[in-house]
Amino acid sequence: MKNRKGKNQTDAPAAKPFSIEKYNSRTDRRTSQNGSLVFSAFVFVVALVLAIAAGYLIAGAFTVWVVLVGFALACLAEMSIHIAMQWERVVVLRFGKFSRSKGPGLYFTIPFIEQTALKADQRIMVTGFGAEETLTSDLVPINVDAVLFWMVWDAEKACLEVENYYNSVSLVAQTALRDAIGRASVSEVAIRRNQLDQELQEVIEERTSLWGITVLSVEIRDIVIPQELQEVMSTEAQAEREKNARMVLAEVEKDISAMLVDAAHVYEENEVALRLRTMHLLYESVKGSGGTVVIPSAYSEGFSDAALNNMTDSLKTPKG
């Protein structure tokens, strides 16, 4: 979202524009072009020298015709002998019709009859794409930018089926991202990143496979949600956590209540056990403070040897 400055915020730094072009792979391929130009110049010079030398041996002198013929032969050699880099695949057309794919290394063409239609780079390409202020299914405008990793596996299709596969891949990715955002709520977009990556990869792969292009992966890089909505979502998440905590506490209290009911039944059936529990509670209440428990005579009589024997007999005798 774009930042809007108020009158009292004139010193605030301006927000950076939404841009993902910095992730894009270079399409000019200066290394490939420079290598091809150097090789072509080398072929031209060598062919020119050999042609002029042959003309001199035949004519016996350096004449204008010898130089012109040598220059023409050098041009034909330069137009016939080419080089493709290790990562390149070259599409050759003959009379405007597909003839063959060549490369890497040396390849030859017939001047004026065959021409190079495309040099496809078969390395992994990186294309940054995004959706700016796109509405989700719950009508919330968000910014999402992502990175697409892809490569050309069929140079023939990339040449014949689509005019500019670089731009086409980028446009397909943007369209797929906008469509995926429009079908999901803002919370689903924020939480289901991995699922969204997989969905985008499948959709883009389906559309670009006809062009000889395969999609390796799609990665959502950033999701920008409006600030006011971030606060609302944070409050909602906190309320959900409190709700879950209260539910857990209620379940624990329910279990404790059931255990107390069972204990009450045991104490009801065994008076001696109830007295022992009472004494234990008294002991626990004064243990920390270092106090003394004074037992009345009525309670002390309950813990005589006869009472203890009766308790033991009652525990050993099965109920029935």
Automatic annotation (TrEMBL):
Keywords: Membrane, Transmembrane, Transmembrane helix. One of its GO terms (cellular component) is side of membrane. SMART domains: PHB. Gene3D superfamilies: 6.10.250.2090, Band 7 domain. Residues 79-237 form the Band domain. It comes from the Bacteria. The keyword Ribonucleoprotein does not apply. The chain crosses the membrane at residues 36-58, 64-85. The keyword Coiled coil does not apply. InterPro entries: Band-7_stomatin-like, Band_7, Band_7/SPFH_dom_sf, Stomatin_HflK_fam. Belongs to the band 7/mec-2 family. PANTHER family: AT06885P-RELATED (PTHR10264:SF19), BAND 7 PROTEIN-RELATED (PTHR10264). This is Slipin family protein. It comes from Eggerthella guodeyinii.
